[in-house]
Specification:
There is one protein chain. The chain has 153 residues and is of the alpha+beta class. Helices cover 21% and strands 39% of the residues. It contains two helices and ten strands; from the N terminus they run αββββαββββββ. It has helices at 5-22, 68-81, and strands spanning 25-28, 37-41, 44-53, 63-67, 84-91, 94-99, 105-109, 120-126, 131-137, 140-141. A hairpin with a 2-residue loop joins strand 9 (131-137) and strand 10 (140-141). The radius of gyration is 15 Å and the shape is globular. The relative contact order is 0.17.
Length: 153
């Protein structure tokens, strides 16, 4: 099994932080869906998201990696339904998101900490293209700028 209960709990904490800021509710999608959560107001879905929780600072890497299949499915859902689709990432010192339609590069990569070679196609998003909901800088929360945003319209 790739995802533990602790992973799911951490993802839920991250997406709940998004929902608090965006004034919405979260619906955990069943495991047969490729993406993690639907964001809703009332019964209406307005966005679909994949959530990643990292154990490092947002400053550590210049790019964020996610499986290419998740990006492709996110883009397909967005184009076919009109919904916004996002990758949400919580770091130790920040929480940000990027639209799956954003520019990316495709590389061979993957996890190496699970006892094997898990090389696969991955999408790489530039950290500078992320929009931050929360970002700490030297222990203090950063001031709002064009890289901070509320809910998608």
């Amino acid at each position: 099994m790739r995802e533990t209960q602790a992973d799911r709990d951490n993802e839920l904490l991250a997406i709940n932080e998004v929902c608090k800021k965006w004034r919405c509710q979260v619906f955990k999608l069943p495991t047969f869906h490729t993406l993690d959560h639907a964001l809703i107001r009332g019964r209406q879905v307005f966005a679909i998201g994949e959530v990643k929780v990292r154990s490092s600072s947002w400053r550590k890497y210049s790019r964020v990696m996610v499986g290419l299949e998740k990006v492709m499915i996110g883009r397909q859902i967005g184009r076919n339904s009109g919904l916004k689709t996002f990758l949400f990432v919580r770091w130790t010192d920040g929480l940000g998101f990027i639209n799956f339609e954003a520019d990316m590069t495709v590389e061979i990569g993957g996890r190496t900490d699970r006892g094997g070679d898990e090389g696969s196609l991955v999408a790489m998003f530039d950290i500078n293209d992320f929009i931050f909901i929360r970002k700490e800088d030297d222990g203090k929360e950063a001031r709002r700028s064009k890289n901070f945003a509320g809910p998608p319209q």
